[in-house]
Design brief:
The protein is about 80% helix and about 0% strand. It has one domain. It contains 13 helices and 2 strands, in the order H-H-H-H-H-H-E-E-H-H-H-H-H-H-H.
């Protein structure tokens, strides 16, 4: 098996993991409060990346790419960057988790994916070039969101609105990550710090609003383990490996399947159904997402 094929398979698995995570997050709300779920999930996600970071640290020392002093400086910068990015991730993740209480996993997957359209648009306001095709993708995605979420009387369900706000939150988080990565932050340490930041900042609000209950954690153990280990540690590592061996265009297409897998898993595992209008909206949002990603210069893609 050549590198491109292997990388594509790894990215497809990554998209599958992230897509099914919406179902796991949604079903977890039957057993545990959103804040307790987020605190435990992201704490476990941070722990799951520590062995990978330790391995990379040893590898750098062994191959001589960095010395101890350089690694220490890199680590400090990456932790600072991770804390800042973690605050944005916390807002996005909380909005998404509360949104999943009242909206379906499939709809949440497609609405959240709108961040892929929003990121290049936000980049326009900080001086980045925006291809013409991106503006087309915005129009398509807006029409798709209208069909997917806007009801008669121009009303929108609370869960759908929270997931839309979540997409804006992820837009900020991604732009922050992009900024710090351009300044050579370590991706794994940044992500690990992000996860621990979310868990730490939400801990006290969780105690006030929901309390800390081991029996609830036990009831939602599978969901916490899946989202914490698979969606964070495993999937993130797979993304890094897969994108290294895959062309940007192919990686874009494969990673965008996350929203499709969210809808499919919601249908298969939770029995969620979409109306023809909602299905049309999903298709348009997905088309807008694909156009937005393919329109970007290769150097701007994750």
């Amino acid at each position: 098996m050549n590198k491109n094929t292997r990388g594509s398979i790894i990215l497809l698995i990554t998209a599958l993991i992230w897509g099914t995570t919406f179902v796991v997050q949604s079903s977890a709300m039957d057993d545990i409060g959103p804040l307790l779920f987020l605190v435990t999930r992201f704490f476990l996600g941070g722990l799951s990346l520590l062995p990978v970071i330790f391995f990379m640290h040893k590898k750098r020392l062994h191959d001589g790419s960095l010395n101890n002093e350089q690694i220490s400086s890199l680590n400090k910068y990456s932790v600072k960057a991770g804390f800042i990015c973690g605050l944005a991730l916390m807002a996005a993740a909380a909005l998404q988790q509360y949104g999943l209480i009242t909206t379906s996993a499939g709809k949440a997957g497609f609405i959240t994916a709108i961040y892929i359209v929003l990121v290049p648009i936000a980049g326009f306001f900080i001086g980045k070039r925006i291809p013409k095709a991106t503006w087309i993708s915005v129009i398509i995605a807006i029409v798709g969101f209208y069909l997917l979420s806007i009801k008669e009387g121009f009303s929108i369900e609370t869960g759908d609105f929270l997931c839309l706000l979540c997409a804006f939150g992820f837009t900020v988080q991604i732009l922050l990550v992009d900024h710090f990565m351009e300044n050579k932050a370590d991706a794994l340490i940044l992500s690990c710090t992000e996860f621990f930041t979310v868990s730490a900042v939400l801990f006290f609000p969780m105690l006030v609003v929901e309390g800390f209950h081991f029996n609830l954690i036990r009831n939602a153990a599978f969901s916490i383990l899946y989202c914490g280990i698979m969606a964070s540690g495993v999937a993130y590592t797979f993304q890094v490996i897969g994108q290294r061996d895959t062309s940007p265009a192919v990686a874009t297409l494969l990673m965008s399947l996350e929203s499709v897998f969210a809808a499919l898993s919601g249908w298969l595992l939770l029995g969620e159904k979409l109306t023809l209008r909602e299905l049309a909206g999903c298709i348009l949002v997905f088309i807008g997402v694909i156009i937005a990603q393919l329109a970007q210069p290769a150097s701007d893609k994750a």
